[in-house]
Every structure is written in C-alpha cells, then in structure tokens.
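2 proteins. here.
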Amino acid sequence: MRINMEDDRFSDLELDSLIANSTMLGTNCTIEALKQNYNSHPSILGGCPFQFDSVLCWPSTAPDTNATLPCFDSFQGVKYDTTQNATRYCYPNGTWSNYSSYDNCKHLTSQMPIADFFELPPWIYCGGYILSLLALSVAIIIFVYFRDLRCLRNTIHTNLFVTYIFSALLWILTFFLQVMTDHPSPANCICLVILLQYFNLTNFFWMLVEGLYLYTLVVQTFSSENIKITIYALIGWICPLVAIVAWSIAKIYAEPLETEDNLFGLEIDCSWMRESHIDWIFKGPACLALLLNLVFLARIMWVLITKLRSANTQETRQYRKASKALLVLIPLLGVTYILLIFGPTIEPDHQHLFGKSYEVLRAFLISTQGFSVALLYCFLNSEVKQAVRHRLQTWNDSRHISSSNSLKGNRRSNSILPPGYWL
C-alpha cells in the first residue's frame, strides 16, 4: 500500500475524514520537531526535515536514504501488523518522496471478520424497517376495512401503527437518499432529520397514549370513558410537534458536540445529525413518556396479578397468564427502549466485541419493534382473527349461494326448451 499526498483517487469525503483524523497526529509531529530543535538536535544538514504524511510522522533523514518506521497500529478502523516496517525515500536534494511505502503493513486477518461483521447494523435496520413497514400497512388495512374492529382501542392502535410506518419510511428514505448517494443534499438532510425526529417522538407519545388508555381501563375504570379520542390525538400528535419546532429553532444556533455524525444507525456528513445539548428538548419528553409507561405497566400488572389471585385458578396458571400479559404489554408500551437507551461505548477500532454485538442487537430490536406490535395486536389478536374468519365465511357462503342460484336459473331455462333440443 502506498500513500500519495497528491493522489486524486480519494473522494472529497474520504479526504476530509483523513484530514480530520490526522490533525492531532500532525500537531504531535510538529511538536516533536520543535522539541528536537530545542534539545540541540537540529535536522540533518541537507537532509529531509520532519514531515507528516497523514499517517506517520517521518523524522529528519539524511539525503539519499530510506527512512524506516514501524507500521501503524490501525488505520480507518482496520488493524495492522506493527511488527513490520514502512519506508519513505529521502532524495539527495533533501526532499521527501511523494510516496510512502506501506506495502509491508498487512491487515491482521483475525480482525477482518469482526470489522466486516459489524458493518451489518445499517442493513439490519433497513431489513427490519421494511419488514415492519409491510406488516404495519397490512394491519392498518385490516383495522380500517373491518367495521367490527372499529373502536377506541383499535383507533389508538392505528395511530401508533402510523407513527411506526412514517418512522420506518423516513429512515429508509434517509438511508438511500443521503447515505447511498455520492452527493447528499444538505437541505434534504435537514428536512429528513426534522421529520424523522418528529415521527420518532410521536411514536413515543402514542405509546404513552396506549399506556394511559390501558391504565384508565384497568386501574381507573371510572374515568376511562371521560377521555375522548381528541385528547389522545392532542397528546400523540400536537405535543411532539411543539417539542420538535422548539428543537428545530434551537438547533440552528446550537454548537454540535465532538461526536460522529451518527443518528438512528446512520452515518451522514450532515451537521443536523450531530448530537448537541439542545437535543434534550425532544429526548427529555421521550424519556418521560417511557418512565410514565413503566409506571403504568407496574400498576397494570399489580392489578392483573391481584385479580388472578382472587380468582379460583391454579397458581401456575395465574403466573402463566401474568407472564403472558407482561410480554404482550412490553412492546406496546415501548419498555424495550429503556433497555436500549444506555449501552457500552463503541470504539472506532472494532476491538470491543461486546459493544459491537450490542449495536447489532439494538438495530434488530428497534427496527422490528413495529413488526412485533403488529403481530401481537393485529395478526394474533382473537377479535381480528374472528372478524377475518367471519368475513371469509360470509364471502364463501355468498359465493355458494350465487353459484346455486345460477344453477337453478339454468335448470329453469332448460325446462322451457322444447323436447329433443339437446339431441
């Protein structure tokens, strides 16, 4: 491998990344050169001076000599064998060659499968969101088409499904329009990020609405009829809008933190993707919604367990019902997000297997959350299965009746024909 400082094979984004990553190393190289001068170790007369080639800091070298340095430990997230050496030639006139020879710096083969494996999270996000998008679309069609399923509970489910659909759709659009293109548009990035943040926050608030509805239904039964769908709609759609508008205005003037451009598993060269302290304008309400749902879940489970104990059922059956209710409520109320808020720190050199495995697991759980909710609250729901079964039975009966009527009509017409007509 050779690095040419004048090579035009690198894209603008790769050059920017190299320059950003090498700024600190270049500064250290300059400091080292100054230290040599201050310590009465001047550069070799007529030789090549200290120089940084964006990878290694080459010391002052005698003319017509090959300088030798150990290979770098890592470069752009790939580990290299430090027992080998890199070389660079100093011309007789005291100038460095434009090429630094890193041919002996080989990849550590044991690290490559891990590096390749952990490129999976974006594609896991993409596949999971597409799966959720398809499942949620079918679920909404079922809830809207069957009149027997039209009630307040399913209306809340439908709104939650809509937030999942828009979140998944916007993530997919951002992935293909911003990540998979050579020249992403900053204006498109800003619009997509704002919409993505809005529908992501509405998702949390509609999960809060689900928890509030179940809480009033199970715990505060006397007030369950007092809350109308308009109140739930205000909580689910308007409250996130206020938070996102405030965040969008503050984001214009906010200074980003020194972090990578990584949001929702996407790496995009866009300032709006960078984290900043004002992001708590929408992160705070999302965390509050999750904490309230955790309280609702605890109160609902307490009431369910109390009722199961008072019933004349076996203890094993009671715990089975309680466990089933808990597993069903966890994805609906978004409790799994609480487990995913804080995770291990991910280092850029791909060494931390546990942290990278966490990223893969996180991508899978977040992207398939919509599919899990659609599966539990639509496709496996007994009311939905009964409504679909009833519709299919009605359609089958009507088809048989129409076919029998047409057969009778044919018989009547045949009886009118003169004898010997079919001969």
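next one coming up
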Amino acid sequence: MVGLKPSDVPPPLGVKMASAGAAACIADIITFPLDTAKVRLQIQGEQKAVEGIRYRGVFGTISTMIRTEGPKSLYNGLVAGLQRQLCFASIRIGLYDNVKNFYTGGKDNAGVLVRILAGCTTGAMAVSFAQPTDVVKVRFQAQMNLNGVARRYNGTIQAYKHIFQNEGLRGLWKGTLPNITRNALVNCTELVTYDLIKEAILKHNLLSDNLPCHFVSAFGAGFVTTVIASPVDVVKTRYMNSPPGQYKSAINCAWTMLTKEGPTAFYKGFVPSFLRLGSWNVVMFVSFEQIKRAMMVTKKRIEAPN
C-alpha cells in the first residue's frame, strides 16, 4: 500500500478539522501563484490598464508578473490566504462527514442529494465565518507592486483596519452572497465528486484506499468543480475587489460583465482556475487523507498503555 493505512477507528471531529486546515494550507502554499494569476486574469478588463502590461494565459501572466513586479508578487495575499484556509477548510471539509451523518441520522450509504446538502451547508457556514480573510486575500492578489502605482494595502492587519475604517463591517463581508453561492457550488461539487469517485473506485476494486486512489478522485473533483463554479468565481472576484459604488450588487456586477464583455467574461481565467483547482484538490485531498491517518496513529500511540 502506498501511504499510511486507514484507521480502524473513525477519526474524531477535532482530528478531521485540524487535518483539513493543515492540508488546505499546504495546498495553498504550493498552488498560490496559479491562484494569483487567475485573479489577475479575472479582473483584466475591469481595472485601468497599466501601460505596456497585459496578461495572456496563466503562464504568460506569471511570467509578466515576475518580470514587472518580481517573484514575491506571486504570493501577494498569502498570509490572508493561509488565515482563510485555517478558518475555512477546517469548517467546510472537516465538518462535512459529521453534517452528512446528521442529515442521514447516522445511516451509512448517504444519497447524492444528502451529500450535496451537507456540502452546501458546510460551505455556507465556512463563508459566513471566514469572509473577511477572503476579501483581503483577493485585494492583495489584485494589487500591483509597481513603481509609480499606488498600493492599496501594505500589510494584512493594515488591510483589515483600512477596510473596516473606510467601508465598515459591510466592507469586510463584501461579496458574501456570491461567495456563499460559489462555495456552496464548489464545496458540494468538490466533496461530493471526490466522495463518489473514491467510492466507485473502491467498490469496483480498481484501486485500494491509498495515494493513487486519492489522486484520481481529487483530479476528477477539481475538473468538475472548475466547470461549474468558474462563472460565480469571476463575479465574486470582481465584486470583492471593486471600490465602493462601482457595482450596486453582485447581480449588477454579473449583468455589467455580460453587457460590456459578453458571456465569455464569465470564463476568464478558466485555465488557471482548472490548473489551480485541479492541483489544489490533488495536494489537499492527498495531504488530508495522510495527515488524518498520521494524527490517528499518533493519537493511538499516546493513548496506548505503557
């Protein structure tokens, strides 16, 4: 078997939440440049263009950012991103099994609708709690580190303070509705697809419950999630990054995009979105399964009598 063996005892809630948060942070650190490139492509056409700078494709965007702003620009907003994952992933992923069991009354073999409901529930709960970290992350990723270009924020704490002072609590929770919509879609698609693919692989004995199985399941979940969630993701990014008054609401933002840029605007940054979500899912789910199992091994050793 490749990797650690599954635990004989189901992991408790604390183990699942801790391992989900840790795995999501690992995935963010590895894939963050792709996420930053995705944000820059999504807001292109909305922000005033800086002379001589235009982004073309995910790797072209990364190359342009390194050339014009330096390699550190690829990790703009990483601190807020890690804060977001610690709050966000631990809730939406860590609570998923427990919420699913709650809806089924503890019965095994939950149906697809129950899994979707559980994914939507934990996704909405996570956004409601962690939204300010997402707002700060997106704004850091959107700002350019260029001479002569004014920076909106100089640090994570300063960004939280500035948004609160200038836009109030509503500014910190700006874009909550499209983000809840997006993450309900992402969470239920991501977790349910991973759940179903993994279950089918194990049921038909195609692979055992190890790293290759987790890799295939996570890759499939990443692709399906990108297709479904990309339009909402673009609207969310633009709306959260917009200055006060630019859009009346998330729906107004979507309508403005449709009328000014056409329907293809909703799939801007699709390739980096897929590269990011696909790779993020692979790293996160593989790490999650292994960290969870490692924590259960450690827990068993600690609790074992000397």
